[in-house]
Amino acid sequence: MRLEPAVLDLDWNEVERRARLFIKKYVEQTSSSGVVLGLSGGVDSSTSAALAALALGGDKVTGLLLPERETYSNIDVQHAKHISERFQIRTETIDITSALDAFYRSTPSFDGRDKVTKGNIKARMRMIYVYYYANKYGLLVCGNSDKSETMMGYFTKWGDVSADFAPLMDLYKTQVRKLARHLGLPEQIVKKPSSPGLWPGQSAEQELGVDYETLDLILCGLEHFMDSEEIASQIQADIELVQRVMFRWLTSEHKRRMPLTTKIQYRTPGMDFRLARVTA
User: Fold this and answer.
1) What is the per-residue pLDDT across 95-122, written as a single tens digit (0 to 9) for each?
2) 20 to 30 A from 237, CA-CA: which of 133, 187, 262, 279?
3) Where in the sequence numbering do the catalytic residues fall?
4) Terminus-to-terminus CA distance in the chain, angstroms?
């Protein structure tokens, strides 16, 4: 295969149809009342919310805006509210600053200078709120993770990746942006630089060390069993970059799996004891 931008083009009408059907059927099969998701105003959460609303109706989609003092962005809040109004999604805004401060104060070893562990606390705190609403109102948690960040392990384990289903997880970031544009999302959201929003000025591309257009082609090549030399040659990138992406992909596999356990008995949950989804 040729690794060029066109290789990531899809039939977006078909992608939308399949995603909407997947969401609708999954909610029906679990007898849930609808879905809840964190609505950050970024392209991933906005696209997930739009698909869920189109599949179920906006009245069955709850978007939680979870701002906090350190990373508050008026632009992100405006974008999230635009999506909620455009797709008639029910929203609630919860400032999680006080909950975070309480955690910081109650943890003897807390070090506010360690931005990574502090950021992970924020991601996990957000999911506490999302799952509270899911439990309280009989909803499924709709995840916002895309394929690029999932393959790179660029997420907080048991944090922002936590969900009952994730309709975008088989679409690379550049594909999510194209789907978002297909769904009619504003260009300000489609083109907005991606950030987990865990500390001020955080940039996904800076932390990954590569732009998404290049990253997605590298990951596509790896997905199709191409070796690093061929990938680097085709996209005219340094072999070191391709190998660095591959290394991160392989070494973050533990973040994408259920916890490993000692193999002792005939069949082991999460390894060789898996069940197809059964419906009544």
Assistant:
1) 999 999 999 999 999 999 999 999 999 9
2) 187
3) 44, 149
4) 43
